[in-house]
Amino acid sequence: MVDTRRTKSNATTMGPSHGFVVETSMQQHGIVAANALQSSSSALQPPSAAGIAEQPPHDPGTSTALQLPAPITGAALPRCPAIGAPQQPHHSTTGFAAQPHGYSDVVPVLEQIHSLPPLRSHLAYAPVYASNGALAQMPLGPMHNTLLDPRSQVDLNSRVDQLTQRVDDQNNLIGQLLRQINLNQGPNLGPSDEERRAHQHAGEQFERSQADMFAWSPSDMPGIDPDIICHRLHVNPASKPVVQKRRNFAPERVTIIEAEIDKLLAAGFIEEVSYSEWLANVVLVAKQEKGKWRVCVDYTDLNKACPKDNFPLPRIDQLVDSTSGNQLLSFMDAYSGYNQIMMYDDDKAKTSFIIERGTYCYKVMPFGLKNAGATYQRLVNKIFKEQIGRTMEVYVDDMLVKAPKRGDHLKNLTEAFSLLRQYRMKLNPSKCTFGVSSGRFLGYLVTQRGIEAHPRQIKAILEMKSPSTVKEIQSLTGRAAALNRFLSKSTDKCRPFFKALKKGQKDKWDEECEVAFQSLKTYLTSPPLLSKPVPGEDLFMYLAVSDSAVSSALIREELGAQHPIFYTSKAFLDAETRYPKLEKLILALVIFARKLRPYYQAHRVIVMTDFPLRSILHSPDASQRLMKWAIELSQYDLLYRPKTAIKAQALADFIAEFTPSAEEEKRVSKKKESSRADKTSAEPDQPRDMWQLRVDGASNQKGVGAGVVIVTPDGTLLEQAITLGFPASNNEAEYEALLAGLRLAKELSIKKLAIYSDSQLITSQASGEYMAKHPRMILYLDKVQELLKAFPTFTIQQVPRAENAHADALASLGSALDTQFRRSIPVEHLDQPSIEEAEQPDLMQIDEDPSWQEPIIDYLVNENLPQDKSEARKIKQKAARYYMKGDMLIRRSYYGPHLTCIKYPQTLEVLCKIHDGECGNHAGGRSLAQKALSIGYFWPTMRKDSTEYARRCDRCQRYKPVPGLPAEEYHPQNSPWPFMQWAIDLVGPMPTAPANKEMMIVATDYFTKWIEAEALSSTKEADVERFIWKNIICRFGCPQSIVTDNGTQFVGRQITAFFTKYGIKQHMSTPRYPQGNGQVEASNKIVLDCLKKRLEGAEGKWVDELPGVLWAYRTTKRRSTGETPFSLAYGTEAIIPPHITVPSMSIEVGSLDQNCR
């Protein structure tokens, strides 16, 4: 039987076009070639049999449809002895129902042609039946039609025998079939007939030259050269071969299997094999067509033994984006693409399979092998490496040639076909579509307008009945997942379906599921058209957060209209559902930045939000999680803007960023019903995006305080309590509260603010109703008016005190807080009135050379970035690690204190003090830089500057220790508890100092590396006993053990009795082996070297310099612990002279005055 139905393809043409489709279906007795060239402006007219011969010659410059002798219907079609059944009319469906194409199909019926007799000139004829049964010859070149004389008609069976004699001329038929088609046919090609004729002639020349690139049978495939690529299995040598037991099949299925094996043998795809170590079974899989079966091989065991080939596949969304928006497209598919790749010779036997009549193995790469797709992708990437992304897109066996302009399409096709010919890859004409404006690609419908959901996928949901079983619900979720890119807030829409799939659910499909299902169907009746981003343009990101999921919409704007690019959605993990609301919003931004990374890297993305996400990410009080997210987002060019009017129906789901949960809705409704005094919800007449600021001040005998409450548009509370450290009247306290609230609102980048206070004086003066007369009130009012300039929209209103109870409670830090707001409340301390800061002159230090801090500060404060995108991206990445504290730039640190950023000449002052000053120990460059970091300072070149400073130090160079023996591997000695074990030694004689002091006793703690040292004039047992009592026991407690050498000062009866009295165990090192007490010996060396560098020639002053040396040592990080001895002993770093002259976070955070309050 000859099948006139279209062959199913991954590149089915949808909608009107001016291209052609070459489609064939090989049957036992014939070939059907469907030529879809008909222009949308031409109609198929059935002329009479006599009128066919009278038609005028065809003009190649016009667009004329092929004419059939009569309309062909199922009843009118004659039976052919060689075919045995009437031909069926062709029906084409598009979308949900039959849709008219822009052309009419002409279906010439061809016999199965393996060869042709010699052709006359360049003409070929396709036999077509007329209504009277006569055989008409339809010219496939640009010539007129003629009708054969019925008397000269030969029998069809003999005609078939005649036409099957010569195989070599088969490609000539294909060429002539293609020659009738014009790649650029149609009235929109050019403004003149001459240009259309030129394009038509070029198309005909191309079609003649490329006819040999199509394969009609496996014998037409030469295969890819194995030297270029062949499929290797790389079976794990440790895997044991598996021989599957032969399966038994019913007789009718055995017939199907043997018929398929005969075809594979005839095609040369398989061969018989003996003694195979690996053996698999065949499996029959039902096709969509009823009664049809596909023969497969079960390679499960073999695939388990093969490692995965991690060759990357292209991103489907990027391929689809780059495909849409082109004027002409051509979809190509290889003829049995996998089978054109040869198997590696040593791996052929591993593909063996068994049937009843024997065992066979594949010579070509079969379907079903684990890494077959990766091998094919590697091949097409190699073939089209210069064209991919420019004129072609390739995903495994789906190949597409694109052209933004019609005139370039033929050139692009020529390049592709020349590469196919070079690598000997043949195409399947039944699955190729050329010169169309739209088509299906990778599950999407790509058009010149944009990207559309495929109607077949939408139809699958619209025609689906309400599920009643788990399997049907799973089918629904799978169909919805295929449309995720087109579904706004898809996780929220499908949430009831996933809840129904949970275990323990009795009623799988309830009313909630049915409502969600119908809502999904309603949405899909008008799915959105997705747009393609233009390189260099800004994109816009809208976010939405519900109690269980986050969603986003990536948008581009063109001529004031908003076009969606990508919808994404993700369900929260269990822990993420407990995040605060604003953290959920930032998490959504992070999640979708990861998912849409290519868009974020290629474009500047503007996040449309009414919440201060940028301020939160750069806040000095940000949590570790927020800091990590801020650094991750810093690699992208992100801007944050308040939401504007929604201009597209596609963004209707993103009007509100937070969707209240059911519990929240109940609480809000209950709250509205009750008559609570403190109204924190928005006023009825306020805009949706208006923020609220409620302030109050209190002055009484206990002190002066202020309270600030900021309410976000969704009802989230931000609370601040302020303690004033100076005497102030009640009105001054009210003004301080207002100023503090305005400063906080300014830092949050709020644009619309409603201010509420229970002070009539403050609200009236700020709104201009009252005039300020008192000098201090005038200063306060000027300060308020200056801050109000930062808010484009604001209102000031007096409210009764009962309605401002929340701010009043914060001001007095009493117990009037609402029970539902149980949380820790930050408290700020003000040391002086805000107006005194205004009275001081503003001083600004101006450097001649630009500082490294200026671009970062300019971005953090003013959001200014350089024009160069590369520099802007670098600054944003750096800025994520910094924040502003007043006028100071602070760098975050994950494992130490936050660092104050300084610049020259402060850097020189800090290096000088910690290297040469009172706390200086003339450390080397590495230790010097580490010490500067540990005490809270940072600048980018600190390691380089420290090394250079130490290298230029004269004392360091003159008294630098000269290395002797080669360095040994470092073996630090530790103790399990601070001050549990000490090592003591005597050093001397030293240069004679006042009081005849020539000796020094040194003790070192094994845990903290703390050193105690003292100058001695004598070294008797009493001196040692007094040192241990005063410097160790009285300060750090009784140690468990002390390590000494064998000197007489440490072994006498007096010192032994002293150790026994306090329960101290004494351990003595080996005589004449100083390394046995190496801990204190290393300390002796450090102390002596530092003394040399400090004293120079004044050697007798070593006693006076000893305390400074010990201080410098105790405040310097040790390599063995990574910490300073001071911090290990006291749990905090010491305040040293650089902190006094160069402010740092250590002083700001650890202020004594603030802590005493």
From TrEMBL:
Residues 972-1133 form the Integrase catalytic domain. It holds the Pfam family Integrase_H2C2. InterPro entries: DNA/RNA_pol_sf, Integrase_cat-core, Integrase_H2C2, Rev_trsase/Diguanyl_cyclase, RNaseH-like_sf, RNaseH_domain, RNaseH_sf, RT_dom. Residues 687-816 form the RNase H type-1 domain. GO terms for molecular function: nucleic acid binding; RNA-DNA hybrid ribonuclease activity. GO terms for biological process: DNA integration. Residues 42-63, 665-688 are annotated as: Disordered. PANTHER family: RIBONUCLEASE H. This is Uncharacterized protein. It comes from Prunus dulcis.
